[in-house]
Amino acid sequence: MSQRVTIEQLADWLKARDEIALIGHVFPDGDATGSTLALWHALKAMGKQAVVCLPGGKPSLYDWLPGADSIFDTEEGTLPFVPNTAMSVDVSERGRLGEGGMKLFDSCPFQGVLDHHKTNEGFGQLYAVDGDAAAVAELVVDLIDALGVQMDEKMAECLFVAISTDCGNFSFSNTRPHTFQAAARCVEAGADVSRITEDLYRTRSLGRTKLLGVVLAGLEISQDGKVAWSRLTDDLLQFCGANQEDSEGIINYLIEMIGVQVAVLAMERKEGTKLSLRAKAPFNVARDVAVPLGGGGHDCAAGVTLKMPLEDALKKTLAVIRKALEK
Ligand code: 5GP
Ligand code: MN
After folding, report:
1. Residue among 255, 294, 297 nearest 271 (CA)
2. Fewest CB atoms within 10 Å of the CB: 50, 60, 104, 223?
3. Which pLDDT tens digit goes with each residue over 161-209?
Protein backbone atom coordinates (compact mmCIF):
# COMPACT_ATOMS: atom_id res chain seq x y z
CA MET A 1 0.00 0.00 0.00
CA SER A 2 1.35 3.39 -0.83
CA GLN A 3 1.01 6.22 1.65
CA ARG A 4 -0.26 9.68 0.76
CA VAL A 5 2.02 12.40 2.06
CA THR A 6 2.36 16.19 1.96
CA ILE A 7 5.05 18.02 0.00
CA GLU A 8 6.85 18.70 3.28
CA GLN A 9 6.82 15.00 4.19
CA LEU A 10 8.07 14.12 0.71
CA ALA A 11 10.86 16.68 1.15
CA ASP A 12 11.88 15.17 4.50
CA TRP A 13 11.97 11.74 2.90
CA LEU A 14 14.06 13.02 -0.04
CA LYS A 15 16.50 14.80 2.29
CA ALA A 16 17.41 11.43 3.77
CA ARG A 17 17.82 9.80 0.36
CA ASP A 18 20.69 9.69 -2.16
CA GLU A 19 21.37 8.03 -5.52
CA ILE A 20 18.05 9.14 -6.92
CA ALA A 21 16.51 8.44 -10.32
CA LEU A 22 13.91 11.00 -11.40
CA ILE A 23 11.55 9.37 -13.86
CA GLY A 24 9.00 11.05 -16.13
CA HIS A 25 6.18 9.63 -18.24
CA VAL A 26 6.17 8.12 -21.72
CA PHE A 27 6.25 10.73 -24.48
CA PRO A 28 7.57 13.27 -22.00
CA ASP A 29 6.08 16.74 -22.40
CA GLY A 30 7.29 20.11 -21.16
CA ASP A 31 6.06 19.47 -17.62
CA ALA A 32 7.63 16.01 -17.30
CA THR A 33 10.92 17.21 -18.80
CA GLY A 34 11.14 20.58 -17.06
CA SER A 35 10.02 19.27 -13.67
CA THR A 36 12.42 16.31 -13.56
CA LEU A 37 15.29 18.55 -14.70
CA ALA A 38 14.51 21.26 -12.14
CA LEU A 39 14.39 18.72 -9.33
CA TRP A 40 17.64 17.23 -10.63
CA HIS A 41 19.35 20.63 -10.43
CA ALA A 42 17.98 21.06 -6.89
CA LEU A 43 19.15 17.64 -5.70
CA LYS A 44 22.59 18.27 -7.18
CA ALA A 45 22.71 21.60 -5.35
CA MET A 46 22.15 19.57 -2.16
CA GLY A 47 25.20 17.47 -3.06
CA LYS A 48 23.17 14.41 -3.98
CA GLN A 49 23.72 11.97 -6.82
CA ALA A 50 20.73 12.08 -9.14
CA VAL A 51 19.84 11.30 -12.70
CA VAL A 52 16.90 12.21 -14.95
CA CYS A 53 15.43 9.26 -16.84
CA LEU A 54 12.79 9.72 -19.51
CA PRO A 55 11.27 7.13 -21.83
CA GLY A 56 12.85 7.78 -25.23
CA GLY A 57 15.49 10.05 -23.70
CA LYS A 58 15.76 13.79 -24.25
CA PRO A 59 12.65 15.06 -26.12
CA SER A 60 13.72 17.12 -29.14
CA LEU A 61 11.14 19.84 -28.42
CA TYR A 62 12.85 20.54 -25.09
CA ASP A 63 16.47 19.67 -25.86
CA TRP A 64 17.48 23.28 -25.16
CA LEU A 65 16.55 23.13 -21.47
CA PRO A 66 19.46 23.43 -19.03
CA GLY A 67 20.65 19.91 -18.23
CA ALA A 68 18.76 18.23 -21.10
CA ASP A 69 21.98 16.70 -22.42
CA SER A 70 22.29 14.72 -19.19
CA ILE A 71 18.91 12.99 -19.61
CA PHE A 72 19.04 9.20 -19.84
CA ASP A 73 16.68 6.99 -21.80
CA THR A 74 14.77 4.54 -19.57
CA GLU A 75 14.57 2.17 -22.52
CA GLU A 76 18.28 1.78 -23.18
CA GLY A 77 21.79 2.15 -21.82
CA THR A 78 23.19 2.02 -18.34
CA LEU A 79 23.02 4.74 -15.73
CA PRO A 80 26.16 6.34 -14.25
CA PHE A 81 25.29 4.80 -10.86
CA VAL A 82 22.82 2.29 -9.48
CA PRO A 83 19.97 4.32 -7.97
CA ASN A 84 18.32 3.10 -4.77
CA THR A 85 15.61 5.77 -4.84
CA ALA A 86 13.08 6.33 -7.61
CA MET A 87 11.05 9.54 -7.84
CA SER A 88 8.26 9.44 -10.36
CA VAL A 89 7.34 12.95 -11.54
CA ASP A 90 4.20 13.86 -13.56
CA VAL A 91 3.28 10.18 -13.98
CA SER A 92 -0.42 9.45 -13.40
CA GLU A 93 -0.07 5.68 -13.02
CA ARG A 94 2.72 3.10 -12.87
CA GLY A 95 2.18 1.98 -16.48
CA ARG A 96 2.90 5.50 -17.75
CA LEU A 97 6.53 5.02 -16.68
CA GLY A 98 6.95 2.80 -19.75
CA GLU A 99 8.59 -0.63 -19.71
CA GLY A 100 12.09 0.60 -18.85
CA GLY A 101 10.77 3.18 -16.39
CA MET A 102 8.73 0.55 -14.53
CA LYS A 103 11.75 -1.73 -14.33
CA LEU A 104 13.92 1.07 -13.00
CA PHE A 105 11.22 2.17 -10.53
CA ASP A 106 10.71 -1.37 -9.26
CA SER A 107 14.46 -1.96 -8.92
CA CYS A 108 14.71 0.81 -6.30
CA PRO A 109 14.02 -0.08 -2.65
CA PHE A 110 12.77 3.49 -2.09
CA GLN A 111 9.97 4.77 -4.31
CA GLY A 112 8.29 8.17 -4.25
CA VAL A 113 5.66 9.80 -6.46
CA LEU A 114 4.99 13.48 -7.13
CA ASP A 115 2.08 14.25 -9.43
CA HIS A 116 -0.85 16.49 -10.28
CA HIS A 117 -3.25 14.13 -12.08
CA LYS A 118 -6.63 13.77 -10.35
CA THR A 119 -6.80 10.18 -11.62
CA ASN A 120 -3.57 9.22 -9.79
CA GLU A 121 -4.49 6.69 -7.12
CA GLY A 122 -0.94 6.47 -5.80
CA PHE A 123 1.81 3.93 -6.36
CA GLY A 124 5.26 3.36 -4.91
CA GLN A 125 5.80 3.71 -1.17
CA LEU A 126 4.67 7.26 -0.77
CA TYR A 127 2.98 9.77 -3.01
CA ALA A 128 2.19 13.47 -2.98
CA VAL A 129 -0.55 14.42 -5.44
CA ASP A 130 -2.36 17.73 -5.85
CA GLY A 131 -4.96 17.33 -8.58
CA ASP A 132 -5.63 21.07 -8.62
CA ALA A 133 -2.10 22.02 -9.65
CA ALA A 134 -1.92 23.10 -13.29
CA ALA A 135 1.50 21.49 -13.66
CA VAL A 136 3.48 19.19 -11.44
CA ALA A 137 6.11 21.94 -11.67
CA GLU A 138 3.94 24.04 -9.34
CA LEU A 139 4.53 21.33 -6.76
CA VAL A 140 8.23 21.12 -7.60
CA VAL A 141 8.53 24.81 -6.69
CA ASP A 142 7.04 23.99 -3.28
CA LEU A 143 9.22 20.89 -2.96
CA ILE A 144 12.40 22.84 -3.71
CA ASP A 145 11.37 25.35 -1.01
CA ALA A 146 10.69 22.54 1.44
CA LEU A 147 14.09 21.05 0.63
CA GLY A 148 15.64 24.38 1.58
CA VAL A 149 17.18 24.88 -1.87
CA GLN A 150 17.47 28.36 -3.40
CA MET A 151 15.97 28.34 -6.90
CA ASP A 152 18.68 29.23 -9.43
CA GLU A 153 18.36 30.35 -13.05
CA LYS A 154 18.56 26.82 -14.46
CA MET A 155 15.81 25.50 -12.18
CA ALA A 156 13.78 28.62 -12.94
CA GLU A 157 13.95 28.12 -16.71
CA CYS A 158 13.02 24.43 -16.47
CA LEU A 159 10.14 25.17 -14.11
CA PHE A 160 8.79 28.08 -16.13
CA VAL A 161 8.71 25.91 -19.27
CA ALA A 162 7.00 23.12 -17.33
CA ILE A 163 4.34 25.39 -15.86
CA SER A 164 3.69 27.37 -19.04
CA THR A 165 3.31 24.33 -21.30
CA ASP A 166 0.90 22.49 -18.99
CA CYS A 167 -1.52 25.41 -18.58
CA GLY A 168 -1.58 26.65 -22.19
CA ASN A 169 0.69 29.54 -21.26
CA PHE A 170 -1.63 30.57 -18.40
CA SER A 171 -4.86 30.27 -20.34
CA PHE A 172 -6.43 26.87 -19.48
CA SER A 173 -9.01 26.48 -16.72
CA ASN A 174 -6.39 24.72 -14.58
CA THR A 175 -4.55 28.05 -14.19
CA ARG A 176 -4.98 29.12 -10.56
CA PRO A 177 -3.41 31.81 -8.39
CA HIS A 178 -0.71 29.40 -7.29
CA THR A 179 0.19 28.78 -10.96
CA PHE A 180 1.04 32.46 -11.36
CA GLN A 181 2.77 32.55 -7.97
CA ALA A 182 4.98 29.63 -8.94
CA ALA A 183 5.72 31.23 -12.32
CA ALA A 184 6.49 34.55 -10.62
CA ARG A 185 9.05 32.78 -8.46
CA CYS A 186 10.69 31.48 -11.65
CA VAL A 187 10.82 34.96 -13.17
CA GLU A 188 12.28 36.38 -9.94
CA ALA A 189 14.95 33.68 -10.09
CA GLY A 190 15.93 34.66 -13.63
CA ALA A 191 13.62 32.90 -16.12
CA ASP A 192 13.61 34.96 -19.34
CA VAL A 193 9.90 34.96 -20.25
CA SER A 194 10.31 36.55 -23.67
CA ARG A 195 13.03 34.19 -24.88
CA ILE A 196 11.44 31.07 -23.36
CA THR A 197 8.00 31.74 -24.84
CA GLU A 198 9.55 32.48 -28.22
CA ASP A 199 11.32 29.10 -28.12
CA LEU A 200 8.11 27.41 -26.98
CA TYR A 201 5.38 29.05 -29.02
CA ARG A 202 6.84 31.13 -31.82
CA THR A 203 9.46 28.72 -33.21
CA ARG A 204 8.80 25.49 -35.12
CA SER A 205 10.61 23.19 -37.53
CA LEU A 206 9.61 22.68 -41.16
CA GLY A 207 8.40 19.16 -40.33
CA ARG A 208 6.20 20.37 -37.53
CA THR A 209 4.71 23.12 -39.67
CA LYS A 210 3.94 20.72 -42.52
CA LEU A 211 2.44 18.21 -40.10
CA LEU A 212 0.05 20.83 -38.75
CA GLY A 213 -1.21 21.47 -42.28
CA VAL A 214 -1.59 17.82 -43.18
CA VAL A 215 -3.38 16.82 -39.96
CA LEU A 216 -5.77 19.75 -40.22
CA ALA A 217 -6.45 18.93 -43.86
CA GLY A 218 -7.58 15.46 -42.75
CA LEU A 219 -9.98 16.82 -40.16
CA GLU A 220 -13.45 15.26 -39.87
CA ILE A 221 -16.42 16.43 -37.86
CA SER A 222 -19.65 14.81 -36.64
CA GLN A 223 -22.94 15.80 -38.18
CA ASP A 224 -23.96 17.83 -35.14
CA GLY A 225 -20.56 19.57 -35.13
CA LYS A 226 -19.79 18.54 -31.55
CA VAL A 227 -16.99 16.04 -32.17
CA ALA A 228 -13.92 16.66 -34.32
CA TRP A 229 -11.17 14.16 -35.09
CA SER A 230 -8.15 13.60 -37.27
CA ARG A 231 -5.49 10.96 -37.86
CA LEU A 232 -1.74 10.93 -37.68
CA THR A 233 -0.26 7.89 -39.42
CA ASP A 234 3.38 6.90 -39.80
CA ASP A 235 3.05 7.63 -43.52
CA LEU A 236 2.02 11.22 -42.78
CA LEU A 237 4.93 11.65 -40.39
CA GLN A 238 7.32 10.40 -43.04
CA PHE A 239 5.74 12.55 -45.74
CA CYS A 240 6.27 15.64 -43.56
CA GLY A 241 9.72 14.69 -42.34
CA ALA A 242 8.36 15.03 -38.82
CA ASN A 243 8.54 12.89 -35.68
CA GLN A 244 5.91 11.92 -33.11
CA GLU A 245 6.78 14.78 -30.79
CA ASP A 246 5.93 17.25 -33.54
CA SER A 247 2.25 16.40 -33.05
CA GLU A 248 2.16 18.18 -29.69
CA GLY A 249 -0.35 21.03 -29.74
CA ILE A 250 -2.05 20.14 -33.02
CA ILE A 251 -5.13 18.80 -31.27
CA ASN A 252 -5.78 22.25 -29.84
CA TYR A 253 -6.81 23.42 -33.30
CA LEU A 254 -9.56 20.79 -33.30
CA ILE A 255 -11.00 21.65 -29.90
CA GLU A 256 -10.73 25.37 -30.61
CA MET A 257 -13.28 25.14 -33.43
CA ILE A 258 -16.59 26.85 -32.70
CA GLY A 259 -19.22 24.35 -31.51
CA VAL A 260 -16.80 21.47 -30.99
CA GLN A 261 -17.12 19.90 -27.54
CA VAL A 262 -14.74 16.95 -27.85
CA ALA A 263 -11.69 16.48 -30.07
CA VAL A 264 -9.68 13.36 -30.85
CA LEU A 265 -6.33 12.93 -32.53
CA ALA A 266 -5.60 9.28 -33.32
CA MET A 267 -1.92 8.45 -33.75
CA GLU A 268 -0.23 5.26 -34.90
CA ARG A 269 2.21 3.91 -32.34
CA LYS A 270 4.19 0.70 -32.33
CA GLU A 271 2.10 -0.61 -29.41
CA GLY A 272 -1.20 0.28 -31.10
CA THR A 273 -3.00 3.60 -31.30
CA LYS A 274 -2.59 6.59 -29.02
CA LEU A 275 -5.65 8.80 -28.72
CA SER A 276 -5.20 12.37 -27.59
CA LEU A 277 -8.44 13.75 -26.21
CA ARG A 278 -9.55 17.30 -25.50
CA ALA A 279 -12.86 18.72 -24.31
CA LYS A 280 -14.56 21.95 -23.48
CA ALA A 281 -16.08 22.10 -19.98
CA PRO A 282 -18.46 20.84 -18.72
CA PHE A 283 -17.66 17.73 -20.78
CA ASN A 284 -15.22 15.65 -18.72
CA VAL A 285 -13.10 13.72 -21.19
CA ALA A 286 -10.94 11.96 -18.57
CA ARG A 287 -13.88 10.58 -16.56
CA ASP A 288 -16.27 9.85 -19.42
CA VAL A 289 -13.93 8.75 -22.22
CA ALA A 290 -10.29 8.11 -21.28
CA VAL A 291 -10.85 6.22 -18.02
CA PRO A 292 -13.59 3.89 -19.38
CA LEU A 293 -11.20 3.01 -22.21
CA GLY A 294 -8.35 2.31 -19.77
CA GLY A 295 -6.52 5.65 -19.99
CA GLY A 296 -6.52 8.78 -17.87
CA GLY A 297 -5.65 12.45 -17.64
CA HIS A 298 -7.35 15.69 -16.77
CA ASP A 299 -10.97 16.90 -17.12
CA CYS A 300 -10.32 18.66 -20.42
CA ALA A 301 -7.11 16.94 -21.64
CA ALA A 302 -6.75 13.21 -21.47
CA GLY A 303 -5.51 10.25 -23.44
CA VAL A 304 -5.39 6.52 -23.84
CA THR A 305 -3.39 3.98 -25.82
CA LEU A 306 -5.38 1.12 -27.32
CA LYS A 307 -3.74 -2.06 -28.59
CA MET A 308 -5.54 -2.06 -31.93
CA PRO A 309 -5.19 -0.55 -35.40
CA LEU A 310 -5.91 3.16 -35.79
CA GLU A 311 -9.32 2.91 -37.49
CA ASP A 312 -10.64 0.42 -34.90
CA ALA A 313 -9.35 2.53 -32.03
CA LEU A 314 -10.86 5.69 -33.46
CA LYS A 315 -14.23 4.01 -34.03
CA LYS A 316 -14.29 2.66 -30.50
CA THR A 317 -13.36 6.03 -29.00
CA LEU A 318 -15.93 7.94 -31.05
CA ALA A 319 -18.61 5.51 -29.89
CA VAL A 320 -17.73 6.13 -26.23
CA ILE A 321 -17.80 9.89 -26.84
CA ARG A 322 -21.17 9.68 -28.57
CA LYS A 323 -22.62 7.77 -25.63
CA ALA A 324 -21.19 10.25 -23.14
CA LEU A 325 -22.62 13.18 -25.09
CA GLU A 326 -26.07 11.59 -25.04
CA LYS A 327 -26.04 11.19 -21.26
P1 5GP B 1 -1.71 14.27 -24.52
O2 5GP B 1 -2.93 14.17 -25.35
O3 5GP B 1 -1.17 15.65 -24.49
O4 5GP B 1 -0.71 13.24 -24.87
O5 5GP B 1 -2.15 13.92 -23.05
C6 5GP B 1 -3.02 14.70 -22.29
C7 5GP B 1 -3.12 14.13 -20.90
O8 5GP B 1 -3.73 12.85 -20.97
C9 5GP B 1 -1.77 13.90 -20.28
O10 5GP B 1 -1.51 14.89 -19.34
C11 5GP B 1 -1.86 12.57 -19.61
O12 5GP B 1 -2.16 12.74 -18.28
C13 5GP B 1 -3.06 11.89 -20.21
N14 5GP B 1 -2.71 10.76 -21.10
C15 5GP B 1 -2.28 10.83 -22.38
N16 5GP B 1 -2.09 9.61 -22.88
C17 5GP B 1 -2.40 8.73 -21.93
C18 5GP B 1 -2.41 7.29 -21.84
O19 5GP B 1 -2.06 6.57 -22.79
N20 5GP B 1 -2.79 6.75 -20.64
C21 5GP B 1 -3.15 7.53 -19.58
N22 5GP B 1 -3.51 6.92 -18.45
N23 5GP B 1 -3.17 8.86 -19.63
C24 5GP B 1 -2.80 9.47 -20.77
MN1 MN C 1 1.90 17.57 -16.15
Report:
1. 294
2. 223
3. 999 999 999 998 899 999 999 999 999 999 999 999 999 999 999 999 9
